[in-house]
Amino acid sequence: MVVEIEPSNIEREFLLEALEKGIRVDGRGIYDYRTLKITCSPTYGLVEVQLGQTRVLARVTCEVTRPFPDRPTEGLVQFNADLSNLAAPGLDSSSGKPSVQEVAVSRMIERVIRQSRAIDTEALCILAGEKVWSVRLDLHFLDHSGNLIDAASIASIAALRHFRRPDVTIDGEEAIIHDVNERNPVPLSIHHTPICVTFGFFGSNGDLMLVDPNLLEEQVQVSSFTITLNSHREICALSKAGGVPLAPSLIQRCTQIALTKVDDINDKIQEALMA
Amino acid sequence: MSRQELISPEGLRVDGRRANELRRISCRASVLNSADGSAYYEQGNTKVLVAVYGPREPRNRSLAQQDHATINVEFNIAPFSTSERRKRSKGDKRLLEISSFVKQTFEGAIQTAIYPRSQIDIYIHLLQHDGGTLETCINAATLALVDAGISMMDYVCACTAGFIDETPILDLNFVEESSIEVPNLTVAIMPRNGNIALLQMESKLHSSKLEDVMELAVEGCKHIHRKLDQAVLVAAKDLADKLSN
């Protein structure tokens, strides 16, 4: 098994000393994101997000399936994250069992989008109890340079908003699915756009805080915290597990900072989709 | 889907509790003979059994860490735990997620540095499922680790809270938890300094309400801490009696 390369002690010390003075190794401000670049391809639902060196490709596809018998009028939304050796050494995808990181990222995205009901699943119904759309979101991590969750959430939302499904007309009991060339495809109905913002904590009590940790910072941090907000200032998910326990007041502060970040990111997604 | 009324006009919840009331908690340490530490924990109708083995030599030499202990958590849901019998595979993402949350929480709570080159195993079995899986797992695991005599910074006490009809509610049961309109917040604290070891939330909650809901959950954690402390005391007295006889 390939072991992830840990940063050397001198690198750690340098990072921490700089951080105490309010300087980050890559020259960013404490609460700054790395450069965010969202590229929408001509194919509907294919979006690549670059957050600094971290690259994530999101692909949305759909097909017609039969709904679950207990929810005859609801379409399906499926999530899949693929974190392979391609993205970073030390990620082991050969064993068949999903890795801890893979589970964490895909479950987080699933919780963020499904549990907060970001997608209107009832709008995916074609014929109740017979046919519904099944939307599938595949996330491919191309380059891991820290903060996969934020990049994945941005890519997911952008891809879902970029996606168009074929139009359908209903004629009695029959559904006609129109070819994309025949009739303009329609966008998914999306209620709100949750975006994850991740914080890293440093120092023995976790009192040094920063936004969007890169790979080196992620390896040195003592704790991390992800908050997911939408543009209506609603919290869609919180996640903090492991690491040094944090004071409750820090969580409140993170919420305030995340609120402004989410607005910026939503604007950028809007801009990329318009282009 | 028709919306079920989760709080009656009299202010009572589906199981007859008030908004800020916990379910009945009963717990016992040292319930298994072969394990180094064990605990049985009931919170309402959610029941878990935890066994702790270790610190012991790692099964797999490559897992041994030179400067701290490795913690291994296995979480299992019994097929008979819900009204509909269902067997889950070992690779179920939800099971893996819960076990990784428990693992990460206790990595921060156990003083792993004093057990180098060893492994601590925590096996959790959910026997009956009525909501609050993660909170009961953490509480039961804390009790079992204390029973095993493993050094920890402090207890880790977890509790859930939600928000229905403008009121924060404590300790969600299965019906409340599965309603998609109810936000589900799980908090685990270290009671001595009140710091947050774990925080998970699902569904939507307005950011201005977070403080109230979290405060309520933290109150619940403190109550659970007292319950766990009593159980530890009972187990210790029991042991002392056995030693003196």
UniProtKB/TrEMBL annotation, chain A:
SUPFAM superfamilies: Ribonuclease PH domain 2-like (SSF55666), Ribosomal protein S5 domain 2-like (SSF54211)
Protein keywords: Cytoplasm, Exosome, Nucleus, RNA-binding, rRNA processing
RNA-binding keyword on record: yes
Pfam families: RNase_PH, RNase_PH_C
Domain of life: Eukaryota
Location relative to the cell: Cytoplasm; Nucleus, Nucleolus
GO function terms (MF aspect): mRNA 3'-UTR AU-rich region binding
Subcellular location, principal: cytoplasm
Residue span(s) of domain Exoribonuclease phosphorolytic: 33-166, 192-259
UniProt GO BP: exonucleolytic trimming to generate mature 3'-end of 5.8S rRNA from tricistronic rRNA transcript (SSU-rRNA, 5.8S rRNA, LSU-rRNA); nuclear mRNA surveillance; nuclear polyadenylation-dependent rRNA catabolic process; rRNA catabolic process; TRAMP-dependent tRNA surveillance pathway; U1 snRNA 3'-end processing; U4 snRNA 3'-end processing; U5 snRNA 3'-end processing
Gene Ontology terms: cellular component: cytoplasmic exosome (RNase complex); nuclear exosome (RNase complex); nucleolus
Stated family: Belongs to the RNase PH family.
Protein name: Exosome complex component RRP45
Native organism: Coemansia spiralis
From TrEMBL, chain B:
GO cellular component, one term: nuclear exosome (RNase complex)
Official protein name in the record: Ribosomal RNA-processing protein 41
Subcellular location: Cytoplasm; Nucleus, Nucleolus
Source organism, top-level taxon: Eukaryota
One Pfam family, short name: RNase_PH
Alphabetized GO MF terms: RNA binding
Keyword Iron: no
Organism field: Coemansia spiralis
Domain Exoribonuclease phosphorolytic: 21-150, 154-220
Family: Belongs to the RNase PH family.
GO biological process: nuclear mRNA surveillance; poly(A)-dependent snoRNA 3'-end processing; rRNA catabolic process; U4 snRNA 3'-end processing
Matching InterPro entries: ExoRNase_PH_dom1, ExoRNase_PH_dom2, ExoRNase_PH_dom2_sf, PNPase/RNase_PH_dom_sf, Ribosomal_Su5_D2-typ_SF, RNase_PH
Keyword line: Cytoplasm, Exosome
Upper lineage: Eukaryota, Fungi, Fungi incertae sedis, Zoopagomycota, Kickxellomycotina
Self-association state and partner proteins as the record states: Component of the RNA exosome complex. Specifically part of the catalytically inactive RNA exosome core complex (Exo-9) which may associate with the catalytic subunits RRP6 and DIS3 in cytoplasmic- and nuclear-specific RNA exosome complex forms. Exo-9 is formed by a hexameric base ring of RNase PH domain-containing subunits and a cap ring consisting of CSL4, RRP4 and RRP40.
UniProt key word Cytoplasm: yes
